[in-house]
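A favour, since you know our structure tokens better than I do. It will help me judge whether the discrete encoding reads sensibly. The space below this message is yours for that.
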Amino acid sequence: QKVIERALKSIFQVKKTSCHSDILAAARATCGKEKGIVVILGTGSNSCFYNGKKIGFKTPSR
């Protein structure tokens, strides 16, 4: 993630960047600041418990 952040900073010439996982993006989009369970279904499926701020428990795809 740090490599991606450095690349984005150099390309877009911004001071602050952040790079996170797709499951965190899905959790924030679906739950906002509330607790919830998020599942991404597809070729590489995974799920997690989101505590309203960060991923509390994650099951990786198999």
Observations:
- The first strand starts at residue 36 and ends at 40.
- Strands lie at 36-40, 46-50, 55-59.
- The mean pLDDT is 91.
- The domain at 21-62 is CATH 3.30.420.40 (Nucleotidyltransferase; domain 5).
